[in-house]
């Protein structure tokens, strides 16, 4: 086979854009952006950069994209960098702007798919650093089904204030402490000024680090990609190697559909549980599986969670940050432990072109004496912290984050709020008392719209010292930084006529993590009476992206996807 013909076999998509006399206009435009004649014989690899100066999570990704492009070029391909958006949860948290957060996952997926599909790229490297652009990139990869590698932008290093490690959640909790007169304005400013020292994603096992770990366990990132500091040489090499790896995948014709299988998603769930990861992983993994045409449901998290313990002592409920886990070897030794215990599927294909078991074959155990990852005989929790609840308040399911430190059962009286802002005010001014169940509704995918994260209210609860004394339930979401007795993703959501819509102040509510139930403790006849008289509120947005999202989005229990009916 001639070199030209062999290369054309590797250019399944780009050849349609650049080959033949009639494609001269296309080649002419590509020459203007740096293509040489020889480049038209090479596979083209799109480098999706989520660079933006709106957030420290992504402020360094332009440099990483250039490294990935260099790796693709060195491997004999032609790298082409393009951008997509990102937003900042941490900055918009607690404001109306946060309603765009989950929406951005769909915008990112659509934009990456659009550019790769339009430009005829043969492969894709996507680099993400904040939790919505990561699943957004994976959704696009699954839809496109072209050889692809995801690169995590890397974790931030911890800040330091008065000798203690600090991060973004430290600031949110300091707000509650200040409101409760536990710290001074000077101390609040001190934490604010020191907690976020530079580039990288939020430093605990919050949603970004959770999703990076899940994607690596899924097989769509190179080994160790999830456990590297954003500003390290290791991360730069990860990007270079990702560019090279896509060329290898093109040659071997290994596509996301070969990697993103049901067993691979089970591996991702297992690792998320062992790490004590974010509840957002439930939402995102179900959405990613939907894009990959893999059946995954809430009940899969329960099934797997019964046999997988929480082993990582990581923030928000634990002691350590991701940068400290990086120092002892990242998640690879943990994955090796899980594999040796029979809790991972070792035969799953990965972006290395080898199976998960082959990738882990030479991984060394954690150093003796480390306290971050526990042994199976001394877990943080013997089963999953991600507890799927059902009951008359959540007929289609809800997701609780129960570390065990806040207890396994809570009964209290409802304090009802129709928005996050209203709830936050009453937490900060001392209205919320011991024994209350804070109900935040009309914050679901359609009712918000956008399913905001409740980090501000949960952090205020913790800051006021009420973490073990109140519960917070919502049809919205929680940040990976949230902890305490919290239940989110309640479905059906209030806006769709779920029972959450008819809860009244003073109603008794019981949450039982052992029985996996969440119930409004009033007669069924009273529930039906209230539901009959309930009227759906008018939509909050009637034009623009939020209105379009509200019309298309599905329930949180099915991943809050926007293409389920197509």
What labels describe this entry?
566 residues; alpha/beta; Glucose Oxidase, domain 1; 4-stranded parallel β-sheet; 22 helices; 39% helix; 14% strand; globular
Topology at a glance:
Elements: H1 3-9, H2 14-18, H3 24-32, E1 44-49, H4 61-74, E2 78-83, H5 89-92, H6 101-119, E3 123-128, H7 133-144, E4 148-152, E5 159-161, E6 164-166, H8 168-179, H9 185-194, H10 207-218, H11 233-252, H12 256-259, H13 262-275, H14 280-291, H15 298-305, H16 322-327, H17 332-340, H18 356-360, E7 386-391, E8 394-401, E9 409-417, H19 420-428, E10 436-440, H20 455-463, E11 471-474, E12 485-491, E13 508-512, E14 517-520, H21 524-533, H22 544-552
Parallel strand pairs: 1-2, 1-3, 3-4, 9-10, 10-11, 11-12
Antiparallel strand pairs: 5-6, 7-8, 8-12, 9-13, 13-14
Helix pairs in contact: 4-11, 6-7, 7-14, 8-9, 8-20, 10-13, 10-14, 13-14, 13-15, 19-20
């Amino acid at each position: 086979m001639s070199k030209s013909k062999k290369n054309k076999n590797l250019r399944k998509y780009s050849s349609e854009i650049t080959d033949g006399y009639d494609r001269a206009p296309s080649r002419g435009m590509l020459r203007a952006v740096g293509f040489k004649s020889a480049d038209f014989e090479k596979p083209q690899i799109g480098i999706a950069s989520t660079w933006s100066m709106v957030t420290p999570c992504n402020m360094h990704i332009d440099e990483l994209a250039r490294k990935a492009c260099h790796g693709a070029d060195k491997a004999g391909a032609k790298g082409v960098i393009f951008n997509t958006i990102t937003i900042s949860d941490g900055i918009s948290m607690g404001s109306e702007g946060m309603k765009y957060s989950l929406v951005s996952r769909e915008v990112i997926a659509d934009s990456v798919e659009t550019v790769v599909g339009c430009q005829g790229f043969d492969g894709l490297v996507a680099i993400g650093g904040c939790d919505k652009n990561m699943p957004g990139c994976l959704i696009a990869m699954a839809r496109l089904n072209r050889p692809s590698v995801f690169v995590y932008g890397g974790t931030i290093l911890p800040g330091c204030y008065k000798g203690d490690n600090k991060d973004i959640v430290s600031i949110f909790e300091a707000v509650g402490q200040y409101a409760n007169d536990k710290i001074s304005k000077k101390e609040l400013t001190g934490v604010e000024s020191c907690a976020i020292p530079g580039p990288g994603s939020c430093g605990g096992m919050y949603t970004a680090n959770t999703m990076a770990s899940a994607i690596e366990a899924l097989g769509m990132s190179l080994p160790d990609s999830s456990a590297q500091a954003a500003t390290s040489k290791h991360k730069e090499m990860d990007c270079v190697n990702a560019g090279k790896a896509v060329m290898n995948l093109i040659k071997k014709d290994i596509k996301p559909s070969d990697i993103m299988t049901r067993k691979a998603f089970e591996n991702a769930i297992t690792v998320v549980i062992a790490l004590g990861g974010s509840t957002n992983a439930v939402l995102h993994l179900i959405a990613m599986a939907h894009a990959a045409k893999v059946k995954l449901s809430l009940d899969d998290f329960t099934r797997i969670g019964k046999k997988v313990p929480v082993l990582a002592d990581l923030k928000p409920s634990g002691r350590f940050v991701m940068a400290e886990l990086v120092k002892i070897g990242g998640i690879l030794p943990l994955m090796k432990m899980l594999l040796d215990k029979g809790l991972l599927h070792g035969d799953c294909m990965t972006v290395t072109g080898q199976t998960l078991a082959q990738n882990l074959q030479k991984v060394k155990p954690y150093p003796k004496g480390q306290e971050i990852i526990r042994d199976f005989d001394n877990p943080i929790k013997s089963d999953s912290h991600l507890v799927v609840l059902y009951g008359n308040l959540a007929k289609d399911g809800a997701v609780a984050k129960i570390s065990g430190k806040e207890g396994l059962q809570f009964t209290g009286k409802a304090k009802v709020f129709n928005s996050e802002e209203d709830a936050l005010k009453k937490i900060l001014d001392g209205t919320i008392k011991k024994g209350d169940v804070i109900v935040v509704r009309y914050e679901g995918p359609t009712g918000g719209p956008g399913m905001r994260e409740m980090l501000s209210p949960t952090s205020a609860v913790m800051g006021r010292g009420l973490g073990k004394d109140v519960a917070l339930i919502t049809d919205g979401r929680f940040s990976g930084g949230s902890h305490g007795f919290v239940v989110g993703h309640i479905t059906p959501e209030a806006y769709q006529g779920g029972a959450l819509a008819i809860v009244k102040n003073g109603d008794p509510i019981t949450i039982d993590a052992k029985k996996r139930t969440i119930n409004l403790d009033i007669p069924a006849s009273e529930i039906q009476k209230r539901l009959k008289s309930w009227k759906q509120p008018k939509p909050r947005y009637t034009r623009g992206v939020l209105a379009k999202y509200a019309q298309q989005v599905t329930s949180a229990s099915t991943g809050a996807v926007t293409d389920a009916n197509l």
